[in-house]
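Appendix B.2, paired examples.
Example (i):
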Amino acid sequence: MHLTGGAALATVAWPLLQACGGGNDSGAAGSQGGVHLVEMGGPEGELAFFPDRLVIRPGETVRWQVRSAGHSATAYHQANSQRYRGRVPEEAEPWNSDVLYDEGDSFEHTFTVEGIYHYYCIPHEGSGMVGAIVVGEALPGPASQPPQTDIPEAAKGKLEELMAWARGLE
């Protein structure tokens, strides 16, 4: 995982992904050569991820890019906050972009473990800025469990919506 300041990575990585067979996207919006784009915040200052849910293949990368300033992409995992139990597969590496402030700034994470992943924006979790990624199959795991009771209500509602969506993929 790493921060990027532009399209240089895509320019370098895309031919390599094509050569390895990774350039065939799954039809998901915002996908380019195995790199899936998620915008953080909307053009009118919306507090949401666009799209807020993705299905990708193991080995593919998600790039979160700031559309409106002051957002993060942070896995629900104890490594990022001791108050949360994990909502990513147990074998998966958690990620945290920290808060990115400048429009166009981005953060990437490559997903290698199949399953369901939930993540949130640190400053806007209370507004329901939560997203989900299904890698491969929507396998049962920590993200299949009901949200813990001390998660903000808007985030809990969004997690329940995303859990229902993931169940529909099984």
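Example (ii):
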Amino acid sequence: HVGFVVNFLFSYEDLRPANVLSFIDIIRLATSTRLKPVHFVSSFSVLLTKEYAGKRVGEDEKLFPAEGGYREGKRACERLAGQARRRGLSVNIYRPPFIGWHRSTGYYNERDFLIKLIHGCLQLGWAPDLDVLFYITPVDYISSSIVRLSCDPGAANSNFNVLSSPVGIPWTVLVGMINEAGGTLKVEPFAGWRARLRKAGPQNPLHIFFPAMRDDMEERGSAVMDLFHRDSAPSEIGLGSLTGRLGQPPEDTAVNAAQMRAFIKRLI
């Protein structure tokens, strides 16, 4: 079960019918006639709560209430999955981070927030100076990992943090990689960058998120990026279940300038 309405601005009540009630229907389907295993794609953002700030967080940690309807919906579905497991249903949970571009072709999801952020900054020629961490894993590695784990009987009833690295990438480091991969970005304080984005208008792909970038959020940037501020990030994301079944992620799954060249070429 992959489908989920992704919106970082809507409340839990707004998203519950599409995201949570539909998962209940999935469980009903899986328990009708005969038991059928469920594979649920959640999000590692359920672990980005203040309780784990600065700490290592593994695959089987307690989930705490999270801000935002999208994350709280993922948490609600994971709790339902836990109840279903206790009643005898096999449920696997996969938690990918930001799903990045394809390693070789550079293809990407143009509706993804991080993609819009990079694309919008490239159009402006400027990036905001923000102290945030982004957790990014190539789409082809995530998809192949989920397929392999879903076909592995030994992986049943497990939680997997499907990341290629246990630590996030600082935004300023990512900007440097973008420039090395063929982009041209300068960095400026958030307030000036926000004014530049306002002036660019609706033709900039990032403009749709402008309402979330309030004047009083200069340090962190926006209600979306606030989630990934360094102060609220875990020190490390545990990947033990993933690497125990698949081995260490290949070296080329780690985000670097060489891996980004095909992606950046498509954006510019």
